[in-house]
Write a structure and sequence with these properties.
This protein is of the alpha+beta class. 33% of the residues lie in helices and 34% in strands. The chain has one domain: Bacterial OB-fold (OB fold (Dihydrolipoamide Acetyltransferase, E2P), Beta Barrel).
Length: 122
């Protein structure tokens, strides 16, 4: 009985650590960002992992999954997984709405880790 209890406690502690390390699920970010439309100029004042929605121009592809984004109030880097931008059919110069979370770093500029991106049709 004691061994079973130890296994249960050990397993639950592993899941707790994995959930803490993994951060928020995408659906939680989407829900929180729906009510948090912000401008690039405001991002620097937000806490790490704040869910946000930004609308502006995808200026250019910098490297791998990094893109420069401008909403008229400033520039910020967006980190967009290949499968997201390919399925959205977007390219540099397109107006987009990006949903993601603020990702602050110690030694490099703050960026946005995108979980959903859509082309804005005018």
């Amino acid at each position: 009985m004691h061994k079973i209890l130890m296994v249960i406690l050990f397993t639950s502690s592993i899941f707790t650590k994995v959930n803490t390390w993994a951060g928020k699920d995408d659906h939680i970010i989407l829900r929180e960002a729906a009510s948090n439309q912000v401008k690039v100029a405001e991002v620097k004042n937000l806490k790490d992992e704040t869910a946000v929605t930004l609308t502006g121009i995808l200026v250019k592809h910098l490297n791998q999954e990094h893109y420069e984004f401008n909403d008229g109030t400033g520039l910020i880097l967006l980190e967009i997984d290949d499968d997201l931008w390919k399925s959205a059919g977007i390219q540099a110069g397109d107006k987009v709405t990006a949903i993601g979370e603020v990702d602050k770093h110690r030694y490099k500029p703050t960026d946005i880790e995108v979980v959903k991106i859509e082309k804005v049709l005018d």
